[in-house]
Design a protein that fits this description.
Largest sheet: 8 strands, parallel, barrel
CATH superfamily: Luciferase-like domain
Low-confidence stretches: none
Number of strands: 13
Number of domains: 1
CATH class: Alpha Beta
CATH topology: TIM Barrel
CATH architecture: Alpha-Beta Barrel
Order of helices and strands: EEHEEHEHEHHEEEHEHEHEHEH
Strand order of the largest sheet: 1-3-5-6-9-10-11-13
Number of helices: 10
Structural class: alpha/beta
Radius of gyration: 19 Å
Helix content: 40-55%
């Protein structure tokens, strides 16, 4: 496992590399999409990557979005010794008692650290489908995070006020270790919330390097303002590692040129093993301790090959 240490100037020696597996597909047979995710988790394990995450979205039909809690339970069968594993949850859309139950069970299935990545979420349609007013999402988020932590610490919780009301809730199993929380945030107030409430902060996948540097500085400044040491500083990147530069351009170039997810091209990371290692090293120099990678390619063979090459990227990073 790649170890990371923070220097006095806030930078880190070697950034840890993990994967945030794509879980949205449109196969003719839904079992095929599920098989692709399992194969990618196994490839990440074989590459000895540092973390494994899956995301969260709701009311996506007819487009398939494999749901994170049952999916992660299956993936941990492939990788029970993952150094770090976890799920992203858009907390305002989840009842906190149900969330704590899911997290406690998942944390019991792994011998590594289990992390809740969480965020406010967006999209009027998604919130409407789940019956949550989007204008109340901050209140839902803060209440849910507080309740989840208390329940997973073994407490009985009653919520007499706030957006969710319930009485005398307890859950079991609780997480074997204290739940670790990374909060995804991009806006200044949201980054300040992450500094106040989180054990770490996660930068969005769509930020370009200049913004990533500015936001990492803002997070460290927000922590300093309230007398807290910065926690994990993580970022999502969309990536393809080619056999060489030409192969990377063949796979990723057309995807990025077509306006991938509405991202600016600079937000995407692709190239040869050496080029990707250089790009990820730049985030270590900004102070990022963890990079969670999602793949640009659609073709399963291209993705599995890129995952295999990430093992060499880790080696190259350690030598820079």
């Amino acid at each position: 496992m790649v170890q990371t240490g923070r220097r006095a100037d806030g930078t880190v020696s070697v950034v840890r590399i993990g994967v945030s597996l794509r879980t949205a597909y449109a196969p003719d047979d839904p079992r095929e999409g599920a098989r692709w995710v399992v194969e990618r988790a196994a490839a990440a394990r074989d590459a000895e990557l540092d973390s494994l995450f899956v995301g969260d979205h709701h009311s996506t039909g007819p487009f398939a979005y494999y749901q994170n809690a049952p999916l992660m339970g299956r993936l941990l069968a492939e990788w029970p010794d993952a150094p770090v594993s976890g799920v992203l949850m858009l907390l305002p859309l989840w009842h906190p008692v149900l969330t704590a139950e899911q997290l406690g069970t998942l944390a019991s299935l792994t011998r590594g650290r289990f992390v809740l990545q969480c965020a406010l979420g967006g999209g009027d349609q998604q919130f409407a489908a789940m019956g949550v007013p989007i204008r109340e999402r901050v209140a839902h988020f803060e209440q849910a995070l507080d309740v989840i932590r208390r329940l997973l610490a073994g407490q009985e919780v009653t919520a007499a006020d706030g957006p969710r009301r319930f009485e005398a809730a307890r859950v079991a199993p609780v997480s074997p270790e204290r739940l670790e929380v990374w909060i995804g945030a991009s806006a200044p107030k949201a980054i300040e919330r992450a500094a106040r409430l989180g054990d770490g902060w996660l930068a969005n996948a769509d930020v370009i390097p200049e913004e990533a540097r500015e936001q990492a500085d803002r997070y460290r400044g927000a922590c300093a303002a309230i007398g807290r040491e910065p926690g994990v500083i993580a970022i999502r990147r969309d990536v393809h590692v080619g056999a060489d530069a030409e192969d990377a351009e063949r796979v990723a170039g057309p995807v990025v040129a077509a306006g991938y997810r509405g991202f600016r091209p600079e937000a995407c990371t692709y190239g040869s093993i050496e080029r990707v290692a250089e790009q990820l090293s730049a985030y270590a120099a900004m102070g990022y301790s963890d990079v969670c990678l999602r793949h640009l390619a659609d073709d399963q063979g291209d993705v599995l090959a890129s995952l295999e090459r990430l093992a060499s990227v880790r080696t190259a990073l350690a030598e820079l």
